[in-house]
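Appendix B. Worked example

We walk through a single record from start to finish. Start with the input: the chain for 6,7-dimethyl-8-ribityllumazine synthase, Roseibium limicola, length 149.
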Amino acid sequence: MSSAPKLLIIEARFYADLADALAEGAIAALEKAGASFDRIEVPGVLEIPAALSMALTAMENDGEIYDGFVLLGCVIRGETSHYDIVANESARVILDLIVDADLAVGNGILTVENDDQAWARARKEDKDKGGAAAQAALAMIALKERLGV
Ligand SMILES: Nc1c(NC[C@H](O)[C@H](O)[C@H](O)CO)[nH]c(=O)[nH]c1=O
Ligand SMILES: CC(=O)[C@@H](O)COP(=O)(O)O
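Next comes the structure step. The output line below is what the pipeline stores for this chain.
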């Protein structure tokens, strides 16, 4: 790749404050690497697979070309089995899309038991999982380039 990579950040805003914290870490990592990016929002993690699929369709239709994707969101266990649907089904479809289309994706979707776990992982000054997802996407972009995919 001759120019700096361009990535698409897909943010689930179900927990807006956590989404902001994850995005802060991701953006800092991308800017540090000299990458450019666009951001789109979806209501919750369950909508992330459709948004990723839509972005791929838009790219096929001569839309913006993204070298990689950063997925951000948080699923916090509640009282019912809904957590398992949101966390597991989204992860399954996301991985199918990634493998089927050789996508460079960093997964920054937290799946946690409570708010404390979520904040420890979302804060840029703490575990910085948003930054880690951005770095994973950049690493996979570099791998794709090295393998000529
Ligand atoms: N419980 C969480 C959700 N639930 C909402 C779903 O993601 C979805 O938006 C809804 O079912 C409408 O289709 N989303 C999260 O991102 N995090 C959660 O903890
Ligand atoms: C993971 C969720 O969707 C969660 O917010 C649902 O909570 P509950 O199981 O208490 O309805």
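Two observations about the output. The beta strands are 6-12, 36-42, 68-76, 105-112. Residues 6-147 form a domain with the Rossmann fold fold (CATH 3.40.50.960).
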